[in-house]
Design goal:
Length: 399
Amino acid sequence: MRSPSLLRLFDSEWSDPYELYRALREAGPVQWDSWMRTWIVLGHAEITTLSKDSRLSGARIDSFYEQLPGATKVGLAPLRDALADMMLFNEPPRHGELRRLIRPGLTPRFIREMRPVVEATVNDLLDRAVPGGRMDVIHDFSEPLTRGVIRQLAGVDERHSHLLENWQGLLHEFFTQSQVEIPRINALRDSFAEGERARRDGTATDLFSRMISGQLEGADYSENEIFANFLLLIDAGQATTTHLIGNAVLALINSPDQLRILREDPALGVGAAHEFLRFDSPVQFTSRVALADIEVGGQRIKAGESVALVLGAGNRDPLHYPDPDRLDVRRRAHDHLSFGYGIHYCLGAALAVMETEIAIATLLRRTEDLQVATPEQDWLDSANFRFLRSLPIRFTPAH
């Protein structure tokens, strides 16, 4: 085998990331990836340890941006500005300040209030698809579901709802130096700017403005910081949940015994959502930079070196999960790594779990004989994002 690297995922030999992780794990939980010039961390224990270590920083947007050629920097500037002010890519104390902007809005009470919205949207989408006995899970179900929920959550005006269609992960766009999404970001910024005065004086009525209104009083948040974390709600709440639901449907079809168990006992739905996250996470790794020397997993990471916490590998770590390559909807997998760990744990985790639970339970209740309609799956060409471009399925409407 050639030198270990996550980039081997682009080889046809290693199209399944979990097979590659198993092969890499034989050399230990922490390894140097000479192709990507980063340490890769594969073990659940090592990832959780490092996720709580303040000597690792997630503030990596500017360091990547400053290495780009001048013309590329100019073109990517709107995307860089948006990402750099997201809480996800900042460390304390600024991380805490940005997190406080949104956290009070994503309360258990708020999630409960969103449940009827999710249920109504799921049923409306299935009302259209079920009679025909076939649909594309991504394009006809999970993507319009998450788009509709996020449009209401982020307060995107109906006039601008088209700006959320076919959303691409902004981090993927940035690190691949793509400028495709720049016009969309600029258009969303213009739309967002229309409501600035109402947000500041407390007269705005959309959910996002209500969510942050209490934090704007007496706080010095710039309009770019507010816009960046408005974008974070869209980016994290739409693309990842879209593909979590898609991956879950595929996993269930490939595990008919588990599909039957979940259909017969919908009360397992919340736990099953966490198991779907563990089994096939939409985000496979997250990157950090070492601020000081760190010893972990028998290796010494030096200050300034990059670290990739391979969440997908940690979620299949046999030292932490028995029989990790088997989907088990009864498994207690709430300590999976797909929402991150420590201070960067996803604020929208409860909403994503609720959307997945409702989407899967309703699909199973309203259909029978679920089957994939194509012999092979069309995955996004990415080492990091486990996104299905499409998932055509066929089924029999339930009586």
